[in-house]
Amino acid sequence: MWNLLRRHVAEDPLAHRSWPEVGRQMPLLQGLSTDEWQRLEARMRHFLAHKTFHGAHGFALSSTRRLQIAAQACLPILNLDDNAYADWHEVVLYPRAFVSRDPWRDEVGLVHEGEWALAGQARHDGPILLAWPDARRSPEIDGWNVVIHECAHKLDMLNGSANGFPPLHAGMQVADWTRAFEAGFADLNRRLDRGETVAIDPYAAENPAEFFAVLSEYFFELPHVLHDAYPAIYEQLRQFYRQDPGARLAPVEHPPWSEDELT
């Protein structure tokens, strides 16, 4: 019995000496209650047991790095179900920004190919790709979190395509979601077209899928900024993620995006 128990403890990824200190040092996780912390750890155990981690170009995968990724990835599904991430099984970590070559379709329907240097990517064919330098600094409270961004895309893809309209829970109204997100997306684009300063990262204006992913970052990192800018969207995300970061995180002074940053 003692040997079996000892083996179980050794196999628990959260029994690593760096946890829970790694988590306690993440500003992103501040304010979690004891019950929430226990649920986060349960989600992390499931995540680490069901996701394969690969290091691209020989990048070393330490237990601490796995824990840092898992903690961020599991925060959005804290009050959801482990099956929310069941349709993908791999996390690939790169030592630096990586190049992706993907086709894209222009306004008239012509298909092009291009290369982009990326910090992260959620691929329709399975894995999440992350550049470690960006993933490592993501837990800071600045409205930018590549892990949450890509995980939001994965939740969005549960309806078959990433379009900013993930499957809603029972009790949520399609009309309410559509009204809030369409109005917010139109408002952000209108402000950017006018050259105005905005509270939200302009990358959110790329398309509805990026709008959902970027605003998910703000929801978990700068909830008060998002609530002030788009309270109806905040309410929809509160219902979707079944949690309220604004109730656990203190307001943070965050400068708006200036015109210089938009060019």
Automatic annotation (TrEMBL):
It comes from Chitinimonas taiwanensis DSM 18899. GO terms for molecular function: aminopeptidase activity; metallopeptidase activity. CDD domains: Peptidase_M90_mtfA (cd20169). InterPro entries: MetalloPept_cat_dom_sf (IPR024079), MtfA_fam (IPR010384), MtfA_N (IPR042252). It comes from the Bacteria. This is Zinc-dependent peptidase. GO terms for cellular component: cytosol.
